[in-house]
Give the backbone structure.
Amino acid sequence: MTNMEPVIGLEIHAQLNTRTKLFCSCPTGGQTEPNENICEICTGQPGALPRLNEKAVELAAKATLALGGRVNGFSLFSRKNYFYPDLPNGFQTSQLDPPVGQGGGMTLTLADGSEKFVRLNRIHMEDDAGKCVHDEKRDRTLVDLNRAGVPLIEIVTEPDLSSSQEAVDFLKKLHNALVRLEVTKGRLEEGEFRCDVNISLKPVGSPTLGVRTEIKNLNSFRFVGQAIDFEIRRQTALYVAGAPVEQQTLHFDHVKAETWPLRSKEEAHDYRYFPQPDLPPVRVSPALIERLEKSLPPSLESVMARYRGLGLKDEAINNLLSWPGALSYFEEALKARPEAKRLSTLMAELFLPACRQSAIEPGEARLKPAQLAKLAQMMAEGKLGKRAAYEIFGDLFETGADPEALVQSKGLALVSDGEALADWAKEIVAAHPDEAQKYRAGQGKILSFFVGRLMRRSKGAADPQKAAQALLDVLGPAGQG
Ligand SMILES: [Zn+2]
């Protein structure tokens, strides 16, 4: 059988970071009760007229510019007609042609180190639907319209991706970029960043695309990877069996990790798009584009390059980039010039988990960036061991105390006092004459045995590097055997 390769395209929905909905002044969040944030516009009452949220247009344009696309000075909203109980208007207000943004893309670094440019087809604005909630007890379905009219952008890629890994890497990078731009809050569990995956197989090297299926509404990076892998296996099996792949819309069942059809082509919607007569065309002035361009933060690439230059691994960088608050905290702490790598480790392992647990933003923590930087620097200079640092961290986080003072008061500072170390070194070498002789006979590795003993003797307080030096002074150089 010919070798087949997957062809994957993504449609990503990101909720725009606005206070109010796309066409009315209802709040986009903070609701506690169903149908609390609704009005005559977002519930589609007869005669109610939508008014476009200017901030949403700015954010959509900002995302387009940051992703290297072109902002259309003139774009249109259309009605996308279909019936669904949680869609009170009977249509979604979306942009067909022209959309607010076109073109652009992002560069991915692949597993083999090579680079791939993933092109974007378009970025358009649209409003979200409400949701149906099934009430099992009374066997009825209720409609909650809090989300109806919440502003989204849909970002559509070209089918440039070839594996689940590439798709997931692309999504993570896009999520980082949009969150950092504050275009979206991007909370996946809230459905603020979700995607549909289009996928088909074709013979390797063939220019003709196969029949594609679409997996709807994935809101976790892991599910995207699992759904793509399952769908590649399913379509491959069909090709092997000589059976046709049907054009279908699929749902991913994350419990069983498999896809199943929602509807097939025969039932596909004819949306009967037409321009929304209640809204004038969207105009984005050259002056606004210029202002937005100036407001863009340094590109992701330049931030990555700077952090790599400081010795940070990509995983650590992505960890910081995925939380704007974490990134600005890190930047602030860097001003104290600590060892950047150690600082990022402390953030990833201790500080950010503590913030998450207390449900606070990094900037709200009592422990200030300069103090965390100091802790990192004390470790880098060998004044504090890792175990001791982790031991006092809870206190530091709670109180925002000065790490140096806290270490002093708890007597946790590393012993690097030459005299104390020399005494311990002498004592330990004298207690282990056989090992000392082996060392002198050429078994240099035995030094680590002595360092271990000395660390234990000091109850973990000795500076390991200075301890090794003190032992070398007593033992002399390892013999040549
Ligand atoms: Zn409303």
Observations:
- Residues 298-410 form one domain.
- The CA atoms of residues 17 and 182 lie 7 Å apart.
- The chain has three domains: 4-283, 298-410, 418-475.
